[in-house]
Design brief:
254 residues; Rossmann fold; 10 helices
Length: 254
């Protein structure tokens, strides 16, 4: 416990008058702040996104697409109504690179952690698959189930950049395990993807057409799991140019 708290002096408790007029002990505000910090640390939100909140999401900059404002309202509504009205459903943020999908996803988790005490988890899709593959190494003590257990059980899971890994039967099986487990347990999953939420179509195309055609979410995770997402998540499209290229380009001194 921090010894710098001006309210409890580091004791962690304060004396207050209860509803019956008696003096009782309550946790100091600093206790909840520390618990919040521990929940956010356990969520493994990347450093780049730890500052991202719903209040800091800018949907009104010059030239911003109207879908960004709609996406922000949907994110706020989800956070405000969780968990009673969400009933295990989540959100699928769909849009091109740099429109703010991950910002909104982590912003939801920030609010739920602060206001509802939710224990969530941030998973980068590619990193998750690499960690699972690494667990197959006989020299590594971690097992596949140890990697997947927190993903299965997190109250709210952020699965970032779904479909980014080149698809194969193994990756499809992993996606199916995660989504089906969380669907059956009625746990909310917030997903971001850069791929259009459309079915796979490679079977109807020539090799040249497949090479020229933009891959879809169905191509990347399979149509069966794309159909599962339609049951699990509210689809939120986000359109616009890359915010990092147009508004927040890197420069020294920031």
């Amino acid at each position: 416990m921090s010894s710098t708290c001006n309210i409890c002096g580091g004791a962690g408790l304060v004396r207050v008058v209860g509803q019956d007029g008696r003096w009782v002990s309550r946790d100091c505000q600093c206790q909840e702040q520390e618990r919040e910090e521990r929940r956010l640390a356990a969520a493994h939100i990347p450093e780049r996104y730890r500052h991202c909140t719903l209040d800091s999401f800018d949907s009104s900059y010059r030239g911003a697409d109207p879908t960004l404002g709609t996406a922000l309202m949907t994110a706020r509504r989800f956070a405000d109504s969780y968990p009673v009205e969400t009933a295990g459903r989540g959100i699928l943020f769909v849009g091109s690179i740099g429109v703010g999908k991950t910002h909104l996803a982590t912003g939801i988790l920030h609010r739920l952690s602060r206001e509802r005490g939710v224990r969530g988890l941030f998973c980068d899709y590619r990193e998750l698959l690499k960690n699972i593959q690494h667990s197959y190494n006989p020299q590594v003590a971690t097992t596949e189930m140890e990697v997947l257990r927190p993903v299965y059980s997190a109250e709210v899971l952020i699965l970032d950049d779904l479909g980014a890994q080149k698809p194969n039967e193994w990756s499809w099986d992993i996606v199916a395990l995660i989504l089906n487990t969380r669907y059956n347990e009625k746990l909310s999953t917030i997903i971001t993807t850069n791929y259009p939420d459309l079915p796979a179509g490679s079977g109807e195309l020539s090799d040249a057409q497949r090479a020229a055609r933009e891959p879809t979410l169905g191509d990347r995770i399979g149509d069966r799991m794309r159909s599962r997402l339609a049951e699990m998540c509210v689809r939120v499209p986000m359109t616009g140019s890359d915010f990092r290229q147009t508004v927040k380009r890197a420069r020294f001194g920031d």
